[in-house]
Amino acid sequence: MASYRLSDLNVSVLIIVFILIIVFLIAARYANPPVRTVTKTVTSMTTITTTSPVTVTSTITSMTATTSVSTTTVTQTVTVTTTVTTSVSSLTTVTTTVTQTLIPRSTINVPQQYAILFSGNQYFILPQCNVASNPYGPENLGTYGLLNCIAMTYGALTIISRFYLPPSGSGVILGIYDSTQAPSAYTPLLYVSSNGSLLVFGDYTSGPRGSYMCKVIMPVRPGWHTVIAEEYYSSGDYWLMLGVDGHNGYCIVPYGNIPQLFGLNGPYPFSAIGVGYTGWWPYTPGGWFFFNGYIEYIALYGTVLNNTQISEVMNGELPARGLVALYLANNYNQTTGIWYETVNGLNATAYGNPLKVPAPG
User: Where among 73, 102, 131 does a domain terminate?
Assistant: First the structure.
């Protein structure tokens, strides 16, 4: 409560001063800086003009705060209702709303309610882009699937996935290929071996000094696994890193050759979840290799993770920085066959009716 004696002053100025003080105090109380945007709305303010001494009383009658959380931001709204009484006017109600969008969240909590079941001839096709300029292989332009698009745009592709491998589980989790019939160029980027005991992350390259299959191989067993797979360009070389449940391995593409993820032998119009063409890749049956297992989520980044972010993944959270696409099993609509992507609307299309089921224990 505050009281002042005034003369020859527009009382409306005093009321505005009170409102601004209240807004400042509320913002200071509820802010979580730095703030991206702040909008303020004032309604129901009455202007009074007088030359007589006036007593003004201001009282906060209610205050509410709400917080909404999206995938990557936190938005907070604070609403304050104030009653203002003067000695020359009736009661005036002032409602002030402060809405602030806080900085992007550093991590994203991943719901673990559902998983998508792949049990043969079931897969998703990711969206495509047109590559009109590729600094890694200027001659290989055209239509590419999302996995290539990210790598060729940002110079890196990081895949984070959590999947469940049943006792008979195997198959390609993510693959790229140039045709849906008999591909002439392809790479099963991430797959579980035919016997279910190995997880392979690899890419193929060729050049004047020969061809090479760069691959990282880690052991797996039935159950849940959290995987981080990275392929990126750095100082003239292409690197591959595979981490499974906290254990890591590396591979470097020799001679500076361009791998297929960056456009060698491209274009590759098809990026798929749940299938890939394997040909002569090791530990596979050759030909099309469908995944048999459960996928809880797949996150795709255009950057390489640092050690802090890797620790966050191992603790069940996803880094928000550099995230290009996030496919959560919870957001798959089995009726429409659309796996809704929650960051940039890069929805995937289902084939063979993959099933949305409660996540296995």
Answer: 102
pLDDT single digits (tens) 67-96 = 454 544 555 565 666 666 666 565 556 566
Read off the pLDDT of residues 232-275 as tens digits, 9 standing for 90 and up: 999 888 999 999 988 889 888 876 789 999 999 999 999 999 99
User: Do 69 and 148 sit in the same domain of this protein?
Assistant: no
Would you say residue 348 lies in a domain? yes
Distances (CA, A) of 15 to 4, 40, 217, 224: 11, 16, 70, 61
* CATH number of the domain within which 305 lies: 2.60.120.200
Look up the domain containing 204 and give its range.
Answer: 107-358
d(CA 188, CA 281) in angstroms, rounded, equals 8
Do 96 and 136 belong to one domain?
no
3-state secondary structure the chain: CCCCCCCCCCHHHHHHHHHHHHHHHHHHHHCCCCEEEEEEEEECCCCCCCCCCCCEEEEEEEEEEEEEECCCCEEEEEEEEEEEEECCCCCEEEEEEEEEEECCCCEEECCCCEEEEEECCCEEECCEEEECCCCCCCCCCEEEEHHHHHHHHHCEEEEEEEEEECCCCEEEEEEEECCCCCCCCEEEEEEECCCCCEEEEEEEEEECCEEEEEEEEEECCCEEEEEEEEEEEECCEEEEEEEECCEEEEEECHHHCCEHHHCCCCCCCEEEECEEECCCCCCCCCCEEECEEEEEEEEEECCCCCHHHHHHHHCCEEECCCEEEEEEEEEEECCCCEEEECCCCCCEEEECCCEEEECCC
Burial class (CB in 10 A: 0-12, 13-18, 19+), 1: exposed
Considering the domain architecture, whether residues 242 and 284 belong to the same structural domain is answered as yes
pTM: 0.72
